[in-house]
Amino acid sequence: MDFDISHILGIWDYKPGQVMVRRFKTKDGRELIQLRVDLGVLQMHATGRPDGKRPMGHDSWFDFYLDRLEEHRGQHGGEDEGFVLSAEDCTRLHMESVQYHHRYICLLQLEDFDGVLRDTERNLELFDFVEEFADSSENSWLFQNFRPQCLMMQTRALVSQKLKDNEHAGALAELDEGIEAIREFYREYSMTEQLEQSGEIASLEGWRAELSSHKPLSEREKLEHALQEAVRKEDYETAARMRDALRKLAVDPAS
């Protein structure tokens, strides 16, 4: 067996600063994603656990520990008390969360926004789970440290969906909610200094400013611009139609 992948790397050059990703199906029908990195290629499954493994017969380590929690509750009258995630448990979950992190970055580049939302929501639920049951705040912080970045990616997917559907106002609203969610994280952890230096907030705010500057014209604004252009060209017939349309709009804004 030839293990050398130089021929693959040779026809797919790495370009610094770019997320280079492709999606394809294998002969047996599996859907895979490949991410080009400087030293090679990362390959992952498009659904399920990214590496395709089933730890302890479960879809993921997260699912395994969720089942363990339910077993614990069944043995303790529905109570969570006494259920703890050890350092080893947290390490397993953290390594797994990084796999999903890599995949939702790829999915955003591929414009699979539903996939991004699926994976970011999954990681956010995991972060909450670990925060509640980790044996130490240090182990919990391994996950919480990624929350702003995960929230930013989730927001980017939500906004992109709105823009794809030509819902400009909805896109701005999603941006505002995403920015506020990240700000709330920093406030909750008393990290106001980091809040002002957040790359995630700066990125989303920059995108919001760009979208605001390209806000679609309202129907009234379109008519007013058309009227001005008609007058400039001395096209009085068109100008008269635009004035009539504006009068009608003023009487019945919903028309």
Could you explain the architecture of this structure?
- The protein starts with 5 loop residues before the first helix and ends with a helix.
- It has a 3-stranded antiparallel sheet, covered by helices on one side.
- 63% of the residues lie in helices and 7% in strands.
- It is mainly α.
- The chain has 2 domains: 47-213, Serine Threonine Protein Phosphatase 5, Tetratricopeptide repeat (Alpha Horseshoe), CATH 1.25.40; 219-251.
- It has helices spanning 6-10, 61-75, 87-109, 113-133, 137-144, 147-164, 168-188, 192-196, 199-213, 219-232, 236-251, and strands at residues 20-25, 31-37, 40-45.
Q: How widely separated are the two ends?
A: 70 Å
- Output mean pLDDT: 92
The CATH architecture name of the largest domain reads Alpha Horseshoe
Spans of at least 5 consecutive residues whose pLDDT stays below 50 are none
CATH class category name of the largest domain? Mainly Alpha
Helix content: 55-70%
Give the strand content.
5-15%
Class by helix and strand content?
Answer: mainly alpha
Label this structure with key terms:
255 residues, mainly alpha, Serine Threonine Protein Phosphatase 5, Tetratricopeptide repeat, 2 domains, 3 strands, extended
Summarize the structure in short.
With 255 residues, the protein is mainly alpha-helical.
Fold topology:
Elements: H1 6-10, E1 20-25, E2 31-37, E3 40-45, H2 61-75, H3 87-109, H4 113-133, H5 137-144, H6 147-164, H7 168-188, H8 192-196, H9 199-213, H10 219-232, H11 236-251
Antiparallel strand pairs: 1-2, 2-3
Helix pairs in contact: 3-4, 3-5, 3-6, 4-5, 4-6, 6-7, 7-9, 10-11
